Amino acid sequence: MGPHWNPKAAELAVAVEGKGMVRVVSGSSNEEETESQSMRFKVNPGDAFVVPRFHTMAQMSFNDEPFVFLGFSTSAKNNHPQFLAGKGSVLHNLDKHILATSFGVSDRTIDDILRSPRDSIIFECSSCAKEEEKIMKEEEEEEERERKREEEETKREEEEEDKKRERERRREEEEAKRQQEEREKKREEEEEREQQEGTGREKEREREEEIEKEQEEREEEREREEEEARRQQEKREKKREKEKGEMKEAEEERRREAEKETEAEEAAAQKEQAQAKKEQEKREKKRQEEEQREGKEEDPAWWGERVRREKGKRSEEGEEEQVAEGEQEQAKRQQEKREKRREQEGDDDHNESLAEEHGHKSSFEGRRALKFRNV
What we know:
Structural class: mainly alpha
Low-confidence stretches: 360-365, 367-372
Number of strands: 8
C-alpha cells in the first residue's frame, strides 16, 4: 500500500492473514529536533497496530504470501487518506517549480515522476518487505551491539574503578605502614635519647604536662567564655521578650481604655438621646393635655371631673379655696350659656347681660390663669 497519512483521524489496524512489514515516518514533536523519526515493525496474523494522525505509513507484503489487514479510523467524517505517490498523489496539487526546488531536481524530472505511476493505492514493490525486514534486523542488531558495547563500557569502567580503588587502598596501606614505621623509629630514637638523657626526659615530660595543663586551662577558659556569652544572650532574649510583653500589655491597656472611652461616649450619647426623647414626649404630652383641656373647657362633665380631681388634690394639699373657685367658674360659665340663650330669644336686657358676661369673663380668665399656674 502506497505511502499515505490520515488528515483527521488515527488508524487502528488488525492483521487478518499473512504477514507483512509496516513503515511509519513522523516529524519530531520537539522544536529543537527537526529530523524525521522512522519506525519499522513486522506484524503477524492477530497482531494490532496503531498509526497516529498525520504520521505517514506504508504496509508491505512479502513475496511468498499476501498480507491482509483490516483498518479502522477514529473518525469517519471527511477523513480521506492522502497519498504521496500514484495517480491520486497530493503532489499533483502543488506547483511543479516548487516541487523541483524543494527536491533539488529539474522540472522535467518532476514531470516524469508525476506521469510515471499507473496505480493509485496498491503498488508493485518486489522484495520491499524483505528489504525492510533486513533493515529492521540490522537496526536491531546494531542496537544490540550498541547495548553490548555500553554494557562492556560500563563493565570496563567498573573494573577500572575497582582497580583504582584497589590501588588507592594499597597506597593507603603502604602510607599507613610507612607512618607506623616512622613512628616506631621515632619512638625508638626517643627511648634511646631518654635513656641517655634521664633528667632531660623528666623535664620534657614535665614540660609536656605543663603544655597539656595550659591547653586544658585555655579550653576551660574558652568554655567559660562561651557559657558566659550564652548566658548573656539568654538574658538579652529574656529582656527582649519582657519588653515585647510589656509593649503588648500597654497596647492592650490602651485598647481597653479606648474601648471604655468609646463605650462611655456611646452611653452618654444614648443617655442624651433618651433624655431628649423623654423631654420631647413630655412636651408632646403637655401639648396634648393642653389641647384636651382647651377642647373640653366647654364640657360641664369634664369641668365637674376636673373640679373633683382638683378638690381631692387641694384637700390633700390644703387648697380647697381654688376648688371652690373652680366650682364658681363652672357656675358662671353655665350662667353665661343661659345669658346667651336669652340673647338669642330677644331678651330686652341684652346690654346688661353683655356687661355682666364681660365682668364674669375677666374674672374667669384671671382665675383660670391662677389655676393653671398653681397646677
